[in-house]
Each structure stands twice: as C-alpha cells, then as structure tokens.
Amino acid sequence: MAKYICKRLGISAGILLVVVFLIYLLMRLLPGSYVENMAIQLSQVPGAKPYEEWVAQLNAQYGLDKGIVEGFFVQLMNMLRGNFGDSWKYAMPVTEKFSQVIGVSFVMGAVALALELVIATFLGIYAATRQYSPQDYLVTTGALLGISLPTFFFATLLKLVFSVKLGWFDLSGLVGRNFQSLSPWGQFWDMASHLVLPVLTLVVVSVGSLMRYVRTNMLEVLSADYIRTARAKGMPSSRVVFFHGFRNTLIPLVTILGSSLPGLFAGSLITETLFAIPGIGYTAYQAMIAGDIPFSMFYLTFLAVLTLLGNLLSDIAYSFVDPRVRLGGQYG
User: Distance between CA 260 and CA 238 in Å, rounded?
Assistant: First the structure.
C-alpha cells in the first residue's frame, strides 16, 4: 500500500508540474496587458508610485519580464514557498481571500453531494428492482429531465417561483437585510435559507446521471449467478438486494465520490454566480473576468491538485470495497 501510494504521488507530482506550466503558459498568452491595466489603477491611488515603477514591479514579481520557461520557474519557486502573490482584484493575498470564501462553497457542495448520494442510491435501487414497471419509467424519465435541464434555466425557474411569486426566499446573496440584528441562531437559519435554492439546483441537475449509474450497475449485479443462488436458497428479497447486491455497486459509487472531491472545494461557478453566493466559484469567476492572474493561477492549480488527489483516493478505496482488487495491478 505504502509503495503504491508513493509511486502514485510521484506520478501525480509530474502531472501537476505539467499542468501548472500549461496554466502559466495560458496566462502569459492572454490577449491584452493586464499588468499594465493593474499598474494604471495602482498608480492612480493618492501618494502611489509612478506607473512605470508599478509595471516593473509587477512584471518582476510574477516573472513576466522574463521568457516563458524562466518566468515559469520564478512563479513555481514562489508557489513552492507558499507565496501565490496578491490578488489584483481583491487587493489582498490570494490565500487570504481563498480562506474567506472556501467555507461557503464547501458547505454547499457537501450538503448537495450528500443529498445526491442518498436520493440517487435510493431511486437507483428502487428502479432496478422494478425494471420495466411504471415506477421504473417514472424514475428514469424524471432523471432524464433533470439531466436535460440547463443549470441557468432551472435556477431562474426556482427564483421565479419561490422568490418572486411565493416570496419564500431572497433572490440572491448569502444573508438578508437584517442579518446583523439577528441572534447567532437566527443568523445561522438566515444563511441556511439562502442556500436552499442553490443546493436544490445542484441536486436536481446532478442526481439524474448518478441515479442512472446506480440503476445500471444494480441491474447488472441482480442478474449475476450468486444473486440467483441467494434467491433460490429462500433468502429474503431485501437482504439479497441490500446485503449482496448493493455492496457490489459500491465501486462505481467510489468512482463518483473520488471525482466529486474537486466539486466540494472548487465551488459551482454557474450556480454561485446565478445566486450571487460569495463562494470560491463566484469569486474565481469575478477574478478571471477582471484579469486577476495571481488568483486565477492559484484557483486552477488548486483544481488540478484536487483532481489528482480525488483519483488517488478512488484507487485506494477500491481495495476496501472490493477484496478482489489489489493495489499494484494484481488480482486475487
């Protein structure tokens, strides 16, 4: 196990190095000089340094006054020391701004993922055990509708119904107008109510594909010989389904969980933007359209690290949910 993990970490480090270089290359090839625009803004502050000095300082800080390869290693050394620079848009260290907004995205993503897993697992097993029945067609049709709905359309529909027509929730934002006057418990419920529609959006547009995944794998398991043998022995149907059948559908779910790791911390850019939730997705979007190179590089690198880590955790989890899998490529 330890040898396999060390090997995978080495491979992941190599992949991450290439990804970081590609991110840096894309940032260097962006049209327009964001450095010059930033220098203009900084030089206009009362008592600030002249425009030329700001341009020279910003170029030197991020290695933009050097060639692409040499500048990349300047940026890489800064990143290895934990120095990701200051956000040009938010005028504070990148890591500080990141720490301010990551909690909201994590809570929203974790709640949505938990609901997706519970709902998709239940509906997937329910549909699989009633194959070709009206209930199966109803669940499958609902899943296809969820998959087909664009996020922006469904979010807008929710806001129209529950915010504009019914007035149950605010249209956007994370807190209400009277947030500061509320008790701590009232503030908690105020923030929770603002996350209801964003979480509902994430669940509805994502649960369908996961449900179909569970249903398909459950149907494959239920047609296996050992399931028929268990039924022939008179074992209760619920025990056959949940004890023997469901255990063998865990490997696909482990794959989903591993690939969902980036979403827990990376936020949902579209949903957060539509509801103006100040999470990491919305913050990164605002930074990108403002040409905030330091924050954009940090965010994209952060996504790459999470993706590699999620794949590694999925592979390790395989050995626990399926005894036949042996890390290192051998099978028992």
Answer: 29
